[in-house]
Amino acid sequence: EDKVVQSPLSLVVHEGDTVTLNCSYEVTNFRSLLWYKQEKKAPTFLFMLTSSGIEKKSGRLSSILDKKELSSILNITATQTGDSAIYLCAVEAGNSGYALNFGKGTSLLVTP
Amino acid sequence: KAGVTQTPRYLIKTRGQQVTLSCSPISGHRSVSWYQQTPGQGLQFLFEYFSETQRNKGNFPGRFSGRQFSNSRSEMNVSTLELGDSALYLCASKRVINSPLHFGNGTRLTVT
Predict the structure, then answer these.
(1) Least confident window among A89-98, B7-16, B20-29
(2) What is the rounded average pLDDT of the residues B3-20?
(3) How far apart are CA B92 and CA B42, in angstroms?
(4) Do B102 and A101 touch (CB under 8 A)?
(5) Which of the four pLDDT bands, split at 50, 70 and 90, describes residue A93?
(6) Which end of chain B is more exposed for a tag (fewer CB within 10 A), N or C?
């Protein structure tokens, strides 16, 4: 059975800190790994990582895919209170059709 | 460009009733997926439609069904509601196969 595990489950940091969120997976026929940010309702798309694109960066956020270790990290530098949210990792695999298998998420709280 | 639109935003139903949720994908997106989000289970895949055909289905009972119309709009139906069906139901759409899912704000269903 496919599995996606995120750690830590929750995290509290001060504004300005750098955080690293982890996602590991066990799936058959990996296709892609996606990161989402969920604040109130809709998860909003951050990054999509595939075999042909293992590193992505946007502003203070960056993500790397390690296909050997079957894992990914999401880095946020110089955190702001607006970064407080649940960060979701999802994996698309060959045996799941086009469905995303989500981890339980990491709840990040950035305090002023 | 308008995002994924879901209606209604909130619903309160009684056990045994049935409910229909509606989703309009982003213009030009032909693939529509539905997910259930609960505090205990996280985000779980319900089904995915493309060109009015169900391409994939998650591990949910037959009480959960869906359909897609020729304009790519989608509906999902839950019959004989149970208390455990209380959840946030998220619809998502994507443009092509190797592109990310974009989520709507969801419909919060409460079953009493």
Answers:
(1) A89-98
(2) 97
(3) 16
(4) no
(5) confident
(6) N
